[in-house]
Design a protein that fits this description.
This protein is of the alpha/beta class. It folds into 2 domains: about 1-50 and about 135-290, 3-Layer(aba) Sandwich (Rossmann fold), CATH 3.40.50.300; about 60-125, 2-Layer Sandwich (Alpha-Beta Plaits), CATH 3.30.70.20. About 35% of the residues lie in helices and about 25% in strands. The chain has helices at about 15-25, 40-45, 75-80, 110, 150-170, 185-190, 205-220, 235-245, 260-265, 270-275, 280-290, and strands at about 1-5, 30-35, 50, 55-65, 85, 95-100, 120-130, 135-145, 170-175, 195-200, 225-230, 250-255. Strands 1, 2, 3, 4, 7, 8, 9, 10, 11 and 12 form a 10-stranded mixed sheet that branches. It has a two-stranded antiparallel ribbon with strand order 5-6. A hairpin with an 8-residue loop joins β5 and β6. α1 packs across α11 (about 280-290) and α5 packs parallel to α6 (about 185-190). The longest helix has 19 residues, at about 150-170.
Length: about 290
């Protein structure tokens, strides 16, 4: 089983559109949407049915108060460094109030409480979905608004994908990474056999491609590059090629700009489904043939 991870360094490069087309081209594969903060692969893949019930993901802790033990001393309020606790303003109800959005589950209030009236419970932070699609199995997740466990959720989603791939004897897992170089991107890269950076010929695209490349180099992960929308700025495209040559990085392919990508997305289809005879569809198929050799 080979894990292929596709990242971008920034949003808007066309990474997910290319990932979907590569997934369609690959056979005997599953796909993982590792952008748990804003997953969108399912919008195009359009799951036919759930292969398993949705999984509840828990990470971290949330404080609550046992009012049968609380003596309303207010020590927990003073100890909270995140200002997540306050005293109820109602005269007849002076129990501390916890703001669940601000609570970081650090446990300082739990340790401070003289009556052990603080309860630390594991917190539900998201859900994981395993679906059957026309391309194969898709694993994606949805992180609850405001929660900061995206890196852990990415790791759990990928673990779920590995278990499914092993049971179904799949040859490839294709990971669609989140934009940027933060914890979710790092969690997506870990354990990958092949990493591909999709960039675009814009100043920000070049800048963020270099940051993604530095991230891969830091973790000693070999990577290649795809230049999407190559012909919208051939000067910057030449700069990307020059950088790649200097760093000895393989460019897997250069995909020309085509409005059909947008039209395909509007119909929830890949470019290969929407325009199978297009130059861009042929370029993506050629790129996949190179990926198979990596």
């Amino acid at each position: 089983m080979k894990q292929i991870t596709i990242i971008s360094g920034k949003g808007g490069t066309g990474k997910t559109s290319i990932t979907l087309a590569l997934w369609q081209t690959a056979k005997n594969s599953a796909a993982v949407d590792c952008d748990v903060d804003a997953s969108n692969m399912f919008l195009v893949a359009q799951p036919i049915e759930s292969k398993t019930p949705e999984q509840i993901f828990k990470s971290g802790f949330l404080a609550s108060i046992d009012k049968t033990k609380c003596i309303k001393c207010g020590k927990c309020v003073l100890k909270c460094g995140f200002e997540a606790m306050s005293i109820n303003s109602e005269p007849q109800n002076k129990f501390p109030v916890i703001n669940e959005i601000l609570c970081e589950g650090c446990g300082a209030c739990f340790l401070e409480c003289p009556e052990k009236a603080i309860i630390m419970s594991e917190k539900e932070t998201g859900k994981i979905f395993v679906s059957k699609t026309r391309f194969g199995t898709l694993i994606h997740a949805r992180l609850n608004t405001g929660d900061g466990s995206s890196g852990k959720l990415v790791a759990k989603v990928r673990q779920t994908a590995c278990e499914i791939a092993k049971n179904e004897k799949l040859e490839y897992i294709i990971n669609d990474g989140p934009p940027g170089i933060g914890c979710p991107a790092i969690a997506t890269l870990t354990g990958s056999n092949v990493v591909i950076i999709v960039t675009e010929p814009t100043p920000s695209g070049l800048h963020d491609m270099k940051r993604a490349a530095e991230l891969c180099s830091h973790f000693k992960i070999k990577y290649s590059i795809i230049i999407n929308k190559y012909d919208i700025n051939e000067f910057v495209s030449a700069q990307i090629e020059k950088y790649s040559a200097e760093q000895n990085i393989q460019i897997l392919g250069k995909i020309h700009y085509n409005q059909s990508f947008i039209s395909a997305l509007k119909q929830c289809r890949t470019i290969i489904e929407y325009a199978p005879d297009s130059k861009e569809a042929a370029e993506i198929k050629l790129i996949w043939s190179k990926i198979e050799l990596l």
